[in-house]
C-alpha cells in the first residue's frame, strides 16, 4: 500500500509512531497494493516515485517482509533465488523502457545497472539440447525480415492499443461504439480477434518454428483461445537480447525505495491492507490495516490499488460498492491467468565449474506443444506427479549476474518453472504456509524432484551437484504474491480481455470516486508493462499526461546520445 501526502504533518516523525501504534490518521492521498500480499510492486513503486517527484509524499505498505512485488529475491542455505524477474527485454542504452526506468530510478540521466544482453534462447527437444546459437537474437531480426509487414502491423496495433488507454474514457467509448476506432486502427481490430495458434498458422507451416514462438507465449496464457498481439510484442521485446539486473532482481526495489524516501515518503513492510474504506457518498477515503494489536484506519484523498482487479473488487471493497462498478463483472468475464510451480535448486560449483550460461532454456517433449500442455493440465495432481512435466523453463540466475561469484563464491542457483492448475493444491489453501502437512510437502517435492531429474537430462553435468531444493506451488504464490489463484500475470490474456470495450475499461482511473488502479491489470502482464502502468496511474492522479513528458525526455536523451 502506498500513501501519498501533501502537507507538512507527514514530515513529523510522530506520524509514523502514531501509525505503528494503531492510531487513526488522516492523510491527503493514498495508494494500496495486494490483499495480504506484496503491495509494493513495480507499478506501485513507479507511481510512488513519479508522484513524489510532483510534491506528493508517499507511504508504501507491504504485507510481507520484502517490498517490490515479484522483484525481491530470497536467500536460503547460502543460495539466492529470484522470484519473478528472470529476464527483461529492451534495456539497452537508448531503448524506451530503459530510459523510463533510468528516469524513475534517479530522476536524472543516470543508468540503472543491467547486465549485458543475454542473446541465447535455447530449446531442449526430447532431452537433447539443440545446437548452441540455434536461437540467437538475430533469429528474431531475421524472422521480422521474413515477414516485413509484421513490423508495420505491430506499430499500428500498438498505437491502437495505446489510444484506448490515453484518450479520455468517454471519447474512447464513443470511438469504439461508433466504429471510428476500428476504421483508424484496423490492424488492432484484426489482431485482437486472432488467436496465437491462428496467427502462427498464418505465417508458417514449419512446426518447429511455430513451437519455438509458442514457448515464448505459453507462460502468459495456456489456452488456445487467447490474443496474439502479445506474441508479436514479445518478438520485438527480445529482439535485442534479454537483460538481468546487476546484483539480482531485488536491486530494482532497493534502488527505488530511497527515491521515495528522498521525496519524504516511507516504505513499511508487514502491513496487510484488509479493506478499502468507503464513505456515505460512495467515495474511497482510506484503508484498514490489519494488525494483531488492533486494526488501523488511514484516511486519504486518493486510493490507488496495486492489488489487481480481482482482489480490489472481490475482496477489498465492500460488496455493495464493488457490485455497482463496471470492473466487478470483468473478474469473471476475463478470469485469472494460469499459475505455475517453481523448483529452486542450490548447486555446488561456480558458473564456470558447472559450465552454465546466462541464456534461458525452454524444454519440451514434442513439437505438439499445445496438445501436450492441455493433456498435462487435465490430469489430477497425483497423476501428474508420476509423469514428466511436458514443458518447463530453466534459468540460472547465478550465471546471469556478474556480481554473483563475489557474493556466493563456488555456488550456483537454478530455477525450474512449469505450468500448474491451482486446483492441484487448492485443498491446502486455508492451511498456514510452512504448516500444510506431510501429504502436501511430499506431493510437491515429488513433482519438483522429477523436474530436477528432467533438468539433468538437458544439463547432465549437474548430476550430483544439488545441495538444496525447495518447491513452490500455486498456493505458495498465493501466500507471497496475494493473487487469489496463485496466478502469474493477474487477469488472463485471452481474446476478450483485448476487446476495445474491456481494454478501455481496464484503466488507471476507476468509476469509484477516489479509487485508482496500477500494475499489470491496467496494461498487460510483465515488468515493462507494469512499469508503464505507473506512468498511466500517476497521470490519472495528477490529471496530466506524463507520457508526453516521457516522450519528450526520450527524444532529448536519444538526441544527446547521437551527438556524443
From TrEMBL:
InterPro entries membership: FAD/NAD-bd_sf (IPR036188), Retinol_saturase (IPR052206)
Organism field: Sinanodonta woodiana
TM ranges: 14-32
PANTHER family to which the protein is assigned, alphabetical: AMINE OXIDASE DOMAIN-CONTAINING PROTEIN, BLR7054 PROTEIN
Protein name: Amine oxidase domain-containing protein
Keyword Transmembrane in annotation: yes
Family membership noted in the UniProt record: Belongs to the carotenoid/retinoid oxidoreductase family. CrtISO subfamily.
Keyword DNA repair set for record: no
Superkingdom of the source species: Eukaryota
Keywords (A to Z) from UniProt: FAD, Flavoprotein, Membrane, NAD, NADP, Signal, Transmembrane, Transmembrane helix
Amino acid at each position: 500500500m502506498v500513501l501519498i501526502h501533501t502537507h507538512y504533518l507527514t514530515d513529523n516523525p510522530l506520524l509514523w509512531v502514531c501509525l505503528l501504534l494503531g492510531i487513526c490518521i488522516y492523510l491527503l492521498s493514498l495508494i494500496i497494493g495486494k490483499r495480504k500480499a506484496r503491495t509494493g510492486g513495480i507499478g506501485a513503486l513507479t507511481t510512488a516515485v513519479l508522484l513524489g517527484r510532483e510534491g506528493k509524499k508517499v507511504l508504501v505498505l507491504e504485507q510481507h517482509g520484502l517490498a517490490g512485488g515479484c522483484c525481491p529475491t530470497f536467500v536460503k542455505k547460502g543460495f539466492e533465488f529470484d522470484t519473478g524477474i528472470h529476464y527483461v527485454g529492451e534495456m539497452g542504452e537508448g531503448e524506451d523502457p530503459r530510459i523510463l526506468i533510468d528516469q524513475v530510478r534517479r530522476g536524472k540521466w543516470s543508468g540503472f545497472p543491467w547486465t549485458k544482453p543475454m542473446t541465447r534462447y535455447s530449446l531442449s527437444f526430447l532431452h537433447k539440447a539443440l545446437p548452441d546459437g540455434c536461437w540467437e537474437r538475430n533469429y528474431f531480426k531475421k524472422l521480422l525480415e521474413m515477414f516485413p509487414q509484421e513490423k508495420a502491423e505491430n506499430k499500428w496495433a500498438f498505437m491502437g492499443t495505446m489510444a484506448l488507454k490515453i484518450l479520455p474514457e468517454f471519447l474512447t467509448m464513443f470511438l469504439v461504439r461508433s466504429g471510428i476506432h476500428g476504421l483508424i486502427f484496423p490492424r488492432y481490430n484484426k489482431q485482437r480477434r486472432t488467436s496465437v495458434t491462428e496467427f502462427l498458422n498464418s505465417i508458417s507451416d514449419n512446426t518447429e518454428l511455430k513451437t519455438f514462438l509458442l514457448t515464448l507465449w505459453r507462460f502468459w496464457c495456456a489456452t488456445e483461445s487467447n490474443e496474439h498481439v502479445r506474441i508479436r510484442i514479445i518478438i520485438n521485446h527480445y529482439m535485442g537480447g534479454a537483460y538481468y539486473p546487476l546484483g539480482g532482481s531485488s536491486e530494482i526495489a532497493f534502488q527505488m525505495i530511497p527515491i521515495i524516501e528522498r521525496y519524504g515518503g516511507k516504505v513499511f513492510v508487514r502491513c496487510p491492507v484488509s479493506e478499502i474504506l468507503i464513505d456515505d457518498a460512495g467515495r474511497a477515503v482510506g484503508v484498514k490495516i490489519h494488525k494483531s494489536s488492533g486494526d488501523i484506519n488511514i484516511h486519504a484523498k486518493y486510493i490507488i490499488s496495486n492489488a489487481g482487479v480481482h482482489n480490489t473488487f472481490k475482496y477489498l471493497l465492500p460488496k455493495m460498492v464493488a457490485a455497482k462498478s463496471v470492473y466487478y463483472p470483468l473478474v469473471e468475464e476475463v478470469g485469472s491467468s494460469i499459475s505455475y510451480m517453481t523448483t529452486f535448486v542450490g548447486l555446488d560449483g561456480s558458473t564456470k565449474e558447472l559450465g552454465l550460461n546466462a541464456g534461458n532454456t525452454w524444454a519440451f517433449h514434442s513439437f505438439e506443444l499445445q496438445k501436450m500442455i492441455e493433456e498435462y493440465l487435465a490430469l489430477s495432481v497425483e497423476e501428474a506427479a508420476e509423469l514428466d512435466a511436458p514443458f518447463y523453463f530453466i534459468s540460472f540466475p547465478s550465471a546471469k549476474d556478474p556480481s554473483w561469484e563475489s557474493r556466493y563464491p563456488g555456488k550456483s542457483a537454478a530455477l525450474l518453472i512449469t505450468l500448474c492448475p491451482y486446483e492441484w493444491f487448492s485443498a491446502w489453501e486455508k492451511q498456514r504456509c510452512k504448516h500444510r502437512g506431510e501429504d502436501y510437502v511430499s506431493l510437491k517435492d515429488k513433482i519438483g524432484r522429477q523436474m530436477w531429474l528432467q533438468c539433468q537430462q538437458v544439463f547432465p553435468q549437474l548430476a550430483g551437484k544439488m545441495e538444496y531444493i525447495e518447491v513452490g506451488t500455486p498456493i505458495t504464490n498465493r501466500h507471497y504474491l496475494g493473487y487469489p489463484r496463485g496466478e502469474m500475470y493477474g487477469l488472463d490474456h485471452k481474446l476478450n480481455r483485448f476487446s476495445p470495450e474491456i481494454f478501455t475499461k481496464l484503466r488507471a482511473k476507476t468509476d469509484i470516486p477516489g479509487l485508482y488502479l496500477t500494475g499489470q491489470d491496467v496494461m498487460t502482464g510483465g515488468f515493462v508493462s507494469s512499469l508503464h502502468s505507473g506512468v498511466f496511474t500517476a497521470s490519472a492522479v495528477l490529471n496530466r499526461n506524463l507520457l508526453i513528458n516521457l516522450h519528450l525526455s526520450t527524444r532529448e536523451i536519444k538526441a544527446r546520445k547521437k551527438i556524443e
